[in-house]
């Protein structure tokens, strides 16, 4: 009986690792994010990332996206959208992610866009900036571009 539980436990752990996890407070559904942003009069912060292999993406996550200052932006100013291209697991929406990366001409990771609810790009940020500069840039874009 213990062997069966051990096998089921390991199988569950392995199955869970096959799918990339969208961070708490983010969505991987671009169309749903557009609707929510329009309804709540917020802008979208759309991140294209290689979460499990891209060094700069991992650095951005660790040094910027996980900070309290960044998280506060999502409470009232932005809808956070996570478009992931992992190598060790499977993305939530792999086909939709490819279409979006082509549509917005993403050429490297991490690439982030600040967008209006209708998908118009207000700002493009490529790479990982220091946390203070990154957050200030987002605050400035938000201040200068109220949601439509």
What would your notes on this structure say?
The chain is an alpha/beta fold and 148 residues long. 48% of the residues lie in helices and 18% in strands. It is built from six helices and five strands; from the N terminus they run αβαβααβαββα. It has helices spanning 2-17, 30-40, 55-65, 68-76, 94-103, 131-144; strands at residues 26-27, 43-49, 78-84, 111-115, 121-126. The protein has a five-stranded mixed sheet, sandwiched between helices. A hairpin with a 5-residue loop joins strand 4 (111-115) and strand 5 (121-126). Helix 3 crosses helix 6. The longest helix is centred in the first third of the chain and has 16 residues, at 2-17. It is globular. The model is unreliable at 2-19 (pLDDT under 50).
Nutshell version of this structure?
The chain is of the alpha/beta class and 148 residues long.
Structural descriptors:
alpha/beta, disordered N terminus, 148 residues, 48% helix
């Amino acid at each position: 009986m213990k062997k069966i539980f051990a096998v089921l436990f390991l199988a569950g752990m392995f199955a869970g690792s096959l799918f990339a996890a969208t961070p708490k407070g983010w969505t991987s559904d671009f169309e749903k994010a557009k609707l929510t942003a329009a309804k709540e009069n917020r802008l979208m912060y759309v991140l294209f990332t290689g979460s499990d292999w891209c060094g700069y993406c991992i650095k951005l996550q660790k040094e910027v996206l996980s900070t309290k200052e960044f998280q506060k932006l999502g409470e009232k100013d932005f809808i956070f959208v996570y478009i992931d291209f992992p190598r060790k697991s499977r993305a939530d929406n792999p086909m939709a992610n490819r279409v979006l990366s082509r549509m917005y001409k993403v050429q490297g990771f991490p690439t982030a866009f600040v967008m209006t609810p209708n998908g118009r790009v207000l700002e493009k940020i490529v790479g990982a900036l220091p946390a203070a500069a990154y957050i200030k840039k987002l605050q400035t874009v938000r201040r200068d571009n109220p949601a439509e």
